[in-house]
Write a structure and sequence with these properties.
With 97 residues, the protein is an alpha+beta fold. It has one domain: 2-Layer Sandwich (Translation Initiation Factor IF3), CATH 3.30.110.60. A four-stranded mixed sheet has the order 1-2-4-3, with helices on both faces. It is globular. The two termini are 15 Å apart. The model has no long low-confidence stretch (mean pLDDT 95).
């Protein structure tokens, strides 16, 4: 699933006021982190995460790894934060334009 520019703008606008619920620290992207992201995406569809400075990988690498492992779309990376989107297969909450 590839998002259009308009859809990404819409999701970024939704993500502006969100607090990061996923944190990647000195252990990097672990199986636990991916499981946590997967559960959050199933419940919310759009999640914000933060990569701490102690993380071994760059922000882009970590966010891309999590997105690929969960089948989510990486919407944006700003500073140390990133936004992931994956529609719920049974009950979609967010309607994309």
């Amino acid at each position: 699933m590839e998002l259009t520019g308009k859809q990404k703008r819409f999701l970024r606008a939704l993500g502006v006021n969100m607090d990061p619920i996923l944190t990647v620290g000195k252990d990097g992207v672990s199986g636990n982190t991916i499981a946590q992201a997967d559960g959050a995406l199933l419940a919310r569809e759009l999640i914000k995460g933060r990569i701490l400075q102690t993380a071994p990988e760059s922000v882009e690498d970590s966010a891309t790894t999590i997105a690929e492992a969960t089948g989510a779309e990486l919407v944006q990376v700003v500073g140390r934060n990133f936004l992931l989107y994956r529609p719920n297969p049974e009950k979609p909450v967010i309607e994309l334009p």
